[in-house]
Specification:
Length: 570
Amino acid sequence: MATSDLNKERAPEDAPARSLHFIEQIIENDNKTGRFEQRVHTRFPPEPNGYLHIGHAKSIILNSGMAKEFGGLFNLRFDDTNPAKEDVEYVESIKEDVKWLGADWGDRLFFASDYFEKMYEYAIQLIKKGKAYVCDLTADQIRETRGTTTEPGKESPWRNRSVEENLDLFERMKKGEFPDGSKTLRAKIDMASPNFNMRDPVMYRILHATHHRQGNKWNIYPMYDWAHGLEDSIEGITHSICTLEFEQHRPLYDWFLDELGAYHPQQIEFARLNLTYTVMSKRKLLELVKKNYVDGWDDPRMPTICGLRRRGYTPESLRLFCQTIGVAKFNSVIDTVVLENSAREDLNKRALRRMGVLNPIKLVIDNYPEDQTEMLVAINNPENEADGTREVPFSKTLYIERDDFMEDAPKKYYRLTPGREVRLRYAYFVTCKNCVKDADGNVVEVHCEYDPESRGGQSPDGRRVQGTIHWVNAATALDAEVRLYDRLFSVENPDDPNNTGDYKDYLNPESLKVIEGAKLEPSLSDARLEDRFQFERIGYFTLDKNSTPEKLVFNRTVSLRDSWSKIAKK
Ligand code: ATP
Ligand code: MG
């Protein structure tokens, strides 16, 4: 990457130069000292046991961002060491999400399972050094003999088996001679270590399972702590970025690599992302999907990447979000509003403005010619002149929002009420005359008169109107279903240990509102999934994947910043 690009990445010309975050500082320093010969090589190592969420997005954006910023490389590696929970469905969705976020792994798509043979050889190496042994304790017994924070653990009675016996047993474990759970291979480190991870951790367990890539080849599977550091080492990763929980595991990873005399990446821990009003645990997200609390992994209320995408978030909005929250050493919880504001900031720049009425009522312009339709010019995006203009049809009968009319309005009501003049966006000044009611007294039609001299919404004589409202021409309006979303949970932290109930008890019953019979301007008939729109005064919208030409469906990404959204919220 050229230096000028680098600078651009870090500090756009109109923004003040930002200071480097602590990971950038570490990398910059390593480049200075030549520790990795100026190489920067990062990776994203998901376990294919669920769909990715916004926390993973943070890790992807950080890892691929560091590679890009420092002219390095980025790997996508599936940490597929646990066949019991993994599935190809997840592999495919993860690839799609990482690609969508713009992280480029080039030809470096790897699977930890491809290293099983190499890991096995490494294990033999440790056994031969007397640093690993086959243990016959059950998982429960291992747990029971681990000791406590104040007491050392108890050494396994199998700890001092001979190298020959260990080699023989380990090979037979591999061949499948022993039942699941009957033996493990453990590192021989220190049962009295103050760090629990160093108390003879298990490296391999017996599991007669079918692996999604290896089939039935393996009867033993490596534990995460054994496998993970090796994977980074094998791939020549320089900066192995992970979340804070792994700080206590670092000495173990270092111990393994030191004993093997293998290449050492630098592990760097950062704070995981937590967001208010949602849950991020894969187990819980899976439960919400499996028990149909939501409409699949990509339900637009889910914090998953595919859910956010379906909701209308762009990769740029997620990158902006990550830039805004930064990279920290301490765990904290980010307010969901920060995420929503990133969408607003991004969509404000890119969304095409359109007019749509969610809760329609007819507006009849009494003095407008009966059979006339004229085309008026509307600006597509005031933030981007290149998006140009479009024509919207206008005639005697329109739809406006029901809330934009009030029969007995207070003084400060700047919309339609008898005697008051407002601007119809891009069209004309109209003065409200009266309304028509049905037998029950509900308003069914609003009547007004227009000023033909005010075409385009321009004042003909310098007189001003206070309000501008949107509208849709009745004869050409598209019918659509519009889905408005709110937070999935009604409390900030559904996982709060002080909560009395299960996290599912805090699901927000109002998190989805489906509006049938919205009226949209005709240009939206050729909306595509990748398009982003602002329905003026209502919010940012995108087409839903289930939309068809016969039945248009739009999702609201977020409401507009200036909390107009009175209509929408009702
Ligand atoms: P588990 O390991 O329990 O299945 P996980 O969310 O850690 O769940 P992984 O597939 O192991 O899932 O995660 C892949 C990468 O994403 C890891 O490097 C992890 O550090 C990172 N990651 C996961 N959750 C977050 C989060 N909330 N914030 C930042 N990074 C995260
Ligand atoms: Mg993990």
